[in-house]
Amino acid sequence: xxxxxxxxxxxxxxxxxxxxxxxxxxxxxxxxxxxRRPSQWPLPAPRTRLSRSRHQNLAPFRxxxxxxxxSALLAVLWIIALLSLLLATTSLLVMQDVDTVGVRRQMxxxxxxxxxxxxxxxxxxxxxxDLLLHQVVAEGEGFDVEIRGEDGRLNPNxxxxxxxxxxxxxxxxxxxxxxxxxxxxxxxxxxxxxxxxFTMPKGAEFRQYNVPGMPFNRPFRSVDEMALVRxxxxxxxAYPGWRDWFSVHAAGTLDINEAxxxxxxxVTGADIVVxxxxxxRRLGRDGIRNTQDxxxxxxxxxxxxxxxxAGDAQGLAGVLAVQSxxxxxxxxxxxxxxxxxxxxxxxxxxxxGGGAATILELKE
Length: 364
Ligand SMILES: [Ca+2]
Ligand SMILES: [Ca+2]
Fold this sequence. Notes:
By secondary structure, the protein is an alpha+beta fold. Helix content is 39%, strand content 16%. Helix 4 (165-174) crosses helix 5 (179-193), helix 4 packs across helix 9 (261-268) and helix 9 (261-268) packs across helix 10 (272-283).
């Protein structure tokens, strides 16, 4: 085979021809189909498939960033931000649910403790100064119970039905009402409770209310019903604490060992300062209710003498008493900083008179 290195190249008449150095043979480049011979011969090596493939593989690396590439990156960042926000919101909701469940559990536990205290206090043999009413059942958990005589409050039904206008008038005057306003309110209360439809001089029956079903024409079943009577809106505005003066479960005679000084002063006409001194005497030297040093009045005459109203003893004899037949139990359960209070009005003496207890009212 002829080697290119052993050949001398000449250009004759525009054509390139070769001459072998060893044999002197002249040879021409091969002609194509049309008889034309190439000006360059030997022909350069053809570009291989491998070189073209390498050229194509390098194409992506020469790709420059475009506007579409920026939009895609922005979309990805938005999705990441959205997922982060979704995750944070979900975590917050889960934490709130956990907190709510924890609070409910604590409130339920506090309610159980309050009911436990109520069960102790409702026993007929448990007296108001019994240490069983103040217990710590675990660390941070316990209950405290206070027992009060319900007859320290006035029974509105008893006062109205027995026509004791004088006691009601004293109470309303104590609240700051004048005589005309007090009489009008007493007439309205009377019309609400009596079963007839005859209007008292300053009272109110159906024609004055003009509301179907009012007045009820029956005794009050709760103190809140009194707020519906005409004229009580003014009392509510002037003396918001009026509800604490009354109870529909009271016997109708005021227990001077349980009544608050204001109630005692209003009903007996005694000076409020004297009534507060009497309250301090009842609480004893420690100033705490329901402890061993409490000084209860054994009889009415002694209390009236200390109040300075002994001269009216005959008139007050049917209004006052020295004990209650019904007790109000306020039980408060506490756990982990949460408190739950339950109030029950129980029939039975607050001094532990024995016998089964009957719950007349239960309120949380
Ligand atoms: Ca009536
Ligand atoms: Ca005391």
